[in-house]
Amino acid sequence: MTSTLSQETAAPAPPPRPPAPRGRRALLAARTGRQRAADWGAALAVTALALLLRLYHLGRPDDFAFDETYYAKDAWSLLNFGYVRDHKQNADQLILDGRVDDVWTDGPSMIVHPEVGKWLIAAGEWAFGMDPFGWRISAVVAGSLMVLAMCRLARRLTGSTLLGCVAGLLLCLDGMQLVLSRLGLLDIFLALFLLVAVACVVADRDAARTRLERRGLDVPVTRGWGPVRALLWRPWLLAAGVAFGLAVGTKWTALYPMALLGVLVWLWGAALRRGLGVRWATLRSAVVDGLPAFAYLVLVASVVYVASWTGWLMNAAEYEESLSSTQYTQYVAPAADCDSEPESDPDARWATATEPDASGLGEVTQSLRSLAIYHRDVYVFHTQFLDCSDHTYESSPWGWPLLGRPVGVDAQLDIKPGEQGCDAAPDSDCLRQVLILGTPVLWWGGAVALLASAALWVGRRDWRYGLPVLGALSTWLPWLANSDRPIFLFYAVAMLPFTVLALTMVMGALIGPGRGSSPRRTAGVVVAGSFVLLVLVNFAWFWPIWTDGLLTNSEWLDRIWFSRWI
C-alpha cells in the first residue's frame, strides 16, 4: 500500500524531449573538422578570386575619381593631424604631383559624413602613400571581405557549402560592388559592416537555440518566462553591435537596418518562447530578449560610434573656433522656394563656443556637447541644404532595383587612333570610362528573386526568406523620403547583399532538398546554373567600363544599353 501511495503522489514525469533537430542547424552542427575546413577553403577561394579582380590595375585612373577628391584628402588629414583640415583650391594637382605638405590650411573642414570609412582609407594611405593605389587599397580589402562574409552567411542560412560559394561568387561578379571596391569612397565600408552585422545576428539566432539544446532547456514549459539566464550572454550580438557601430560611423543610413535587426531579434526570441509554450510570448520576449538586444545592439553601437569621433573630440576647440557659426548653425527655417534664402539667425553660435574652456571630465562633457551640436549642423545640411541642388548623375530610388541611372566617375574621351593602343578606324576614336553600374542580369534577376522570396516567406512561413526581403527594404525605402535631394545609384550597394541572398535562397528552393536526382532537382540545377553562367558572361562583357578599359566608340555603345546610362 505504501508503495502504491508513493507512486500515485509522486511528481508527474516531465514531457519527453523532442527529437534532435534534423534541419539546417543540425546539418551545421554535425560538420566534422575536415568538412569545416573544406567549407572555409571554398569560401576563401572565392574571396581570393574577388581580391585578384579588384587589384587589377588599381591605380588607374591615375587621378581623383568622383568623390575621392573629398575622402582621400579627409583621410590623409585625419592620419596626419587627427582631424580633417581644410585644403587649398589646387590641392588635387599638388597631391598628384607628390606634394602633400603645403596643401592644408590651419582651420578644420566641415565634413558631412562620420569618420570610420575615412580612417580606413587613411590606413591604406599610411601603408602605401598618398596616391590612387594608397587611397583605394582599403576598399579592395573591404570588398573582398564582403565576399567572404557573404559565403559564410549564405552557408549558414542554406546549410549548403555550394550555395554559400554561389552567393559569394554572385557578389564577386557584381559591377557596382567591383567598382566601389576599387574607389576611395565610403559606401563599400558601409555595405561590409552591415553584412557582417547581419551575419552576426543570424549566428546569434542559431547559437541561442544550440545553447538551449545542450543545456536541456529546449523542452516545453507550462508557465513562467522560459529560459532567461541561459540567453543573457550573447557574444554574437555583441559583435553585431560593434559592426553596427562601425556602419553608422561610416554613414548614418545604417540606422535603419540596425533598427530592423533589433526588432527581428525580439520577434525571433518571441517565436522561440512561443514554441516552448510560454504564454504572452511576444510581450515577455520584449523584456527578456528585447532589452538585452537593445543593450547589445544600440548601446554598444553608440559607444563604438562616439569612440570613432575621438580625433574630432580631441580637437573640439578647433571646431568651436572655426565652425561654430556657419550657415547650418544659423539655420532657422527652410526657404519658401529654391530661389529664396532660408530663414536664419545671424547671431546664432554654438553654446560651447562662448563658454570658458573646461578641464578634466568637464572638458570631455563640453567636447561631447560640441559634437552633438555639430551633428545638428550636419543633419541640417543633409535634410535642408541639399534639397535645392542637382547633379548630372542623380537618380530616383524608385529605379535602383532596375539600375535606373548609373554614375560616371571618370572618363577619358577622344583618344585618337594610335594613341594608348587605340585601333579604331581613322574617322573614329577610343575612350576609357569607369561607370558605377551593377551587373544587369544579376540586379534584374535579383528584383524577381526578392518578389519570389516574399511569396515564399508568406507561403512557407520560413524566416530565412523574410531576412533578405526586409533587409532590402530597410536599405532602400528610407531613400524614397529623400528623393528631392541629389542621390545616386551606388547608394544601393547596401541592399546588394540582401538581393544576392534572395537569389541564393530562391535557387535553393528551385533545386530542392536532398542529394538524389529527380526531374525537379535536375531542372532546378539547370535553371540556377544557367543564371550563374549568364551573370558571369554579363560581367565579362561589361568589364572594360568598370575598369577604365580602352574601347572604341562602337564597342562602348554596345555596352550602353539605354540612353539613361550615358
How would you describe this structure to a colleague?
The chain is mainly alpha-helical. It has a domain of 171 residues. 59% of the residues lie in helices and 6% in strands. Strands 5-6-7 form a three-stranded antiparallel beta sheet. Strands 1-2 form a two-stranded antiparallel sheet. Helix 3 runs parallel beside helix 8 and helix 17 packs antiparallel against helix 20. It is globular. The N and C termini lie far apart (95 Å).
Secondary structure class reads: mainly alpha
User: Helical segment tally?
Assistant: 21
Overall shape: globular
Helix share bin:
55-70%
Strand order of the largest sheet: 5-6-7
The helix/strand order is HHHHEHEHHHHHHHHHHEEHEEHHHHEH
Largest sheet: 3 strands, antiparallel
Radius of gyration over alpha carbons? 27 Å
What can be said about this structure in brief?
The chain has helices at residues 2-9, 24-29, 33-55, 68-81, 91-96, 116-128, 132-158, 161-172, 175-180, 187-214, 235-248, 255-275, 281-307, 310-314, 316-322, 361-385, 440-460, 463-480, 496-511, 519-546, 553-559; strands at 85-87, 104-108, 331-333, 343-344, 407-415, 430-436, 550-552. It is mostly helical and 566 residues long. The protein has a domain at 216-386.
Give the key terms.
566 residues; mainly alpha; three-stranded antiparallel beta sheet; two-stranded antiparallel sheet; disordered N terminus
Describe how the helices and strands are arranged.
Elements: H1 2-9, H2 24-29, H3 33-55, H4 68-81, E1 85-87, H5 91-96, E2 104-108, H6 116-128, H7 132-158, H8 161-172, H9 175-180, H10 187-214, H11 235-248, H12 255-275, H13 281-307, H14 310-314, H15 316-322, E3 331-333, E4 343-344, H16 361-385, E5 407-415, E6 430-436, H17 440-460, H18 463-480, H19 496-511, H20 519-546, E7 550-552, H21 553-559
